[in-house]
Design goal:
365 residues, alpha+beta, Heat Shock Protein 90, two-stranded antiparallel sheet, 62% helix
Length: 365
């Protein structure tokens, strides 16, 4: 049963139960049965209609996202307003003669004392409805948060293992070692730098453990190391440019997200072309949304991408909400661009760090 079905079941069942209890308190001998049933039926419809309309207002006003400190006084006011509305609207049929007054003489019915007692009782009833409604939502949201947390843990671990496989697979690892061996006699200093970069890349992956997000600046540092290692393999066929604004560098991103996009660009773009090409990484803020773009030469075959990109897309939405996205498109006839949009919302993000200087780098061509 989904939330919508459960909501309507509780609404109809709850208000029917309330009016059923009210029927037990009515003097059945004083009125015809159909009059009593009509009265209680109108009460059920009124209760469901009022609370359902209030539910719509709650969603539009964002009450479900408020803290208890800010929500509590609103709920007290809402209980009073709903109770007053229920009192007034429930008396209208009797006022216009649509239904008969039940249980008391008519002159006793239209008194402030009776209205005040009904207002008090209905305030308790509406307050109980509000407590149940928001309590159930809190329980549902907590449960969903737990489910999302475990899904995120599983996805993050999958991504980490995949990254380890990509970085430790024989093709990449032995190519790097062969490049180092060739450079030892030809250019010892460059060989030393390559060993340092390889160690740094492997260490950054092995030390992540429970890290879900890292500052973009840290992610780009890992990506530069990876690109410099791949440049030894591809030589002049691989060129890269990184352009990130200062404000973007401090924003959190899923660990290895940019590197996944870069690896994909090299595998399907640069490596597939004899002349190679340029991988361009850009990062900036658009209306407080971090926009990451990785462009590489090639022609797009599928907008969904492979398993790695689908996994990255799901991790984005788990970390940053449904507004986060990852798309692929051909920006021109020979360029494929991956664009990730990350809004500022992540309960898992790490504490912010001071933004570094503007990063604009490029590999030698």
């Amino acid at each position: 049963m989904n939330r919508q079905h459960a909501y309507w079941l509780c609404q109809l069942g709850g208000w029917t139960l309330v009016c059923g209890i009210s029927l037990l308190l009515v003097n059945w001998k004083a009125q015809e049965g159909w009059t009593i049933l009509l009265n209680q039926g109108l009460s059920v419809a009124l209760g469901v209609g009022l609370t359902h309309a209030f539910r719509g207002y709650v969603h539009r006003a964002g009450w479900l996202d408020l803290s208890l400190k800010h929500l509590a006084p609103r709920l007290v006011g809402a209980a009073l307003v709903l109770s007053l509305s229920f009192n007034v609207l429930s008396d209208l049929p009797a006022y216009f003669g649509i239904i008969e007054v039940i249980g008391v003489e008519e002159e006793e019915y239209w008194t402030l004392h009776r209205f005040s007692l009904n207002l008090f009782g209905n305030s308790i009833l509406m307050g109980l409805w509000l407590v149940i409604y928001f309590g159930v939502h809190l329980a549902w949201d907590y449960r969903q948060a737990e489910v999302d947390k475990w899904k995120l843990e599983a996805q993050a671990e999958t991504a980490r293992l995949k990254a380890l496989k990509l970085q430790l697979n024989p093709h990449f690892f032995f190519n790097s070692l062969n490049s180092v061996r060739a450079l030892i006699a030809e250019d010892p200093e460059r060989a030393q730098r390559m060993v340092t970069r390889l160690a740094r890349l492997l260490r950054s992956t092995l030390q992540v453990d429970d890290v879900k997000t890292v500052p973009l600046e840290e992610e780009l540092s890992t990506v530069r190391t990876y690109l410099e290692l791949e440049k030894v393999r591809f030589e002049d066929r691989l060129r890269y440019e990184i352009d990130a604004t200062e404000t973007a560098l401090n924003r959190p991103v899923p660990f290895l997200l940019v590197q996944t996009l870069v690896e994909n660009g090299i595998k399907h773009g640069v490596a597939a072309r004899r002349e190679g090409g340029t991988v361009t990484i850009q990062a900036d803020l658009v209306d407080d949304v971090l926009r990451l773009q990785v462009a590489n030469p090639g022609v797009l075959e599928s907008e969904e991408g492979g398993v790695g990109l689908q996994n990255a897309r799901e991790r984005l939405q788990l970390l940053f909400g449904e507004d986060a996205s990852l798309t692929l498109e051909n920006t021109d006839a020979e360029t494929v661009t991956a664009t990730a949009l990350l809004p500022r919302q992540s309960e898992y993000q790490r504490p912010a760090v001071e933004p570094g200087p503007r990063a604009v780098e490029g590999g030698p061509s």
